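Researcher: Here's the sequence for the chain we discussed earlier.
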Amino acid sequence: MSQIAVAPVTYKRVMLKISGEALMGDQGFGLNPPTVARIAQEVKSVHDLGVEICMVIGGGNIFRGLQGSAQGMERTTADYMGMLATVMNALAMQAALESLDIHTRVISAIPMDQVCEPYIRRRAVRHLEKKRVCIFAAGTGNPYFTTDTAATLRASEMACQAIFKGTKVDGVYDRDPAKHSDARRYDNVSYDEVLQKHLGVMDASAIALARDNHLPIIVFSLDEPGGFCGILRGEGTYTRVHG
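Model: Thanks. This is the structure I predict for it:
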């Protein structure tokens, strides 16, 4: 029996970066299982196209290191707590993906062998080649680095062709579109412009690392059903950050 023809995709291996807050749904804190399941379904639709997928999920829905340090906690300790929060989110996403019959590996920068694999680059690459989704948890394993920087670092190490940053809006705007009705969306914007204008796509370290490694960043709305899959087929609304 012949296989159904699939439309060609723009990228063969990508990094999907989402915030921990994306998993909250309408709740103010924690994980909302239906929201996690919906995002997992979006990942499945891309996986079904034959695209190799890496993921990094923030931990802000459980604990944010920067917030903890602002309230008097030592920054290093607060950041480590934030890293552990990302492991919890990664395990939740793994469970949701595996319920859809997608083989998934959670790979942590902080060794915790009972719940996930330690980060070994060659092993992670092999997982991707076997069409397993790799969720990189615990940031870079170091305090003072955000999950945006971790996503860019892992994307570079895994030889991803692009970083997909799932957000609440359908791209990068010159000002907050929720507050300004005349906010203008960029179709394309350079790394340097993002840094100079403080456009808030990712933190400066992540943008600089992406620029140095010629890694485009695709900013799109995670709330748009089929948005992730559509962009890989050359459709949809998004902003491309590149050189």
